[in-house]
Known about the structure:
Ribosomal_Su5_D2-typ_SF; BrxL_N; 28 strands; five-stranded antiparallel sheet; Peptidase; P-loop_NTPase
Amino acid sequence: MTLDTLDHLAAASFEGYIVRKDLAKTFKGQYPVPTYVGEFLLGRYCAGTDELEIREGLEIVQRMMSERTVRAGTQELFKARARERGSVKLIDLVTARLDAKTDAYLVELPSLQIRDVRITPELVQEHERMLTGGFYAELDLEYDARIAAEKNGRPFGVASLRPIQLSKRAALQEMAAGRQAFTTAQWKDFLLRSVGFEPSALTDRAKDVLLLRMVPFVERNYNAVELGPRGTGKSHLYQQVSPYSHLVSGGKASVARMFVNNASGQRGLVTQYDVVCFDEVSGVSFDQKDGVNIMKGYMESGEFSRGRESIRADGGVVMVGNFDVDVAHQQRVGHLFGPMPPEMRDDTALMDRIHAYLPGWDVPKLHAGLFTDHFGLVSDFLAECWHQLRFEARWTRVAHRVRLGGALSGRDTTAVQRTVSGLLKLISPGNDEIEDEDLDWAVRLALEVRRRVKEQQKRIGSAEFRNTHFSYQLGEDAVEQFVTTPELQSDDAIGTDPLPPGQVWALGSGGADEHAGLYRIDVNEGPGSGVRVLNNPVPRPFQESIRFAEQNLYAQARTLIGDRDPRQHEYSVQLRAFDAARSGAGLGLPSLLALCSALLGRPLRGGLITAGHLNLGGGIDPVHNAVDLAELAAEKRAAALLVPISARKQLNDLSDDVAARLTILYYTDARDALLKAIHE
């Protein structure tokens, strides 16, 4: 392996806490333990860059893994060693239960197929997680021949155990100090390497989804759903990377196991783990009818009741599963919660408690090229830092810089704040100042993954979830930015969200040589003067449209944009054609609206498409094919069409189908058009 810049940065900043991830891969599948178990030992013996030390440490780790993990068929050999030597060292999953008949705790060691191993109450109280699903540990298993001779004797006992996880209070401070040497982009890539992925093989979109998967580990009571194609590693993080997470495989979910056992008073998984992940969620069902209601109450408040006692827990609930079809088809036949269990898939109240819906379809299927051979943080060090980050807050430090739009409900706002907080903890584990660019990245992602939840609620038909136009502003005077979910967008269809200021959907009326066509005009303004069209070459008809729009802007500046001086700005204009029509003929009025929108810093209405041409005298030229324009607007799924009043009589001939789907807005002059087009 050739060390790159990131490897050298990691070696200099995290000496003793990094491991080559290709070494961890050598153990995957060889031994019956999760990845983080091997990395725990690699971190102890191979946490450096010196090749000789790595080779020596690797030999030690391989010997320990070979001697202390139980392969299928070798169970009796380990039992015999315990008998002959008095004890044997093991690495195994340790789970415990209370045997009421003998008033004793008993441990189960699945690799040895032993269910009645003695353990002291003190060890159980010190490590209560062994009562709720268990954890991997290094343990000394002793054998007592005298007890074996007794009737119903239990000769095997746990003499000592050490959980396979780091318990170092200064871990987070050391991570924060090491983070200083990285840029944000480098740190994101290093986090991805630390969980086993090679960032150079991933798109920026895939990186964002993988980082979103990490948020439940650093944010308390964080609830998320990820559905997508098979084979994209949705459960990898929750099963292989952190001992603070627990994976519940598809099937019956016990209320007693999840929350509290009323018979024994034993607390459940959500009290013992940071993250509880339901794998293959489509097959999950609770053993009690009120199981989903108990979970809904817990997801809302982080509390559940046992009799009169209310129990508080910090564990987040994550649900992952597979689509049987692609996301586009899933949206056509239903909604994106369709693969959930029947008792959950149409429950809008449950959905409302989900902070994020991750787009699993944006992660590629796992293959060898996606896994890294470079250095990353040792998994148990990373998991310990994530665990400590759960008790810190980030939103309160940036709340004064972000203003969320009016479409967000109280639960929407809470969900977005939690996601932003989690993402900022991941990229800035210390108390560093958050750059505007990083904050913008976190807010946009948070709004998107929450809006995806809201869009599915709207599809189910609940009127209360109708407004999904999520937006935000950074800073006092910043422009309002709207955030959509990419799977709802189409390059040649009009979305319901407002475009950024300066962007306008337009219909060109065509002419003798071409039919009507859909265009988008993009205008950016800055210091300078004049209009610059970026298209090369510039279609002559569009050049005329822009010239007419520019002259009308100067002539009608007072009525259109108030006291702003349009001559003190330079306008960069780009025309995008989406149909066979390319000339940009007859786009004077849409071009003027785009110029005004850019100058005012205000977007036009969402779902609006505009049509009409200006003359140099400020008048509006008539539209001769208004019915064709309206039908094209409906075909492109526009919500409203803005046309000159002269087209009213023509549109009386519009079909009932198009008239029912499309709102027609008429304008008398340029100022009237701007007032009706601008987003309120």
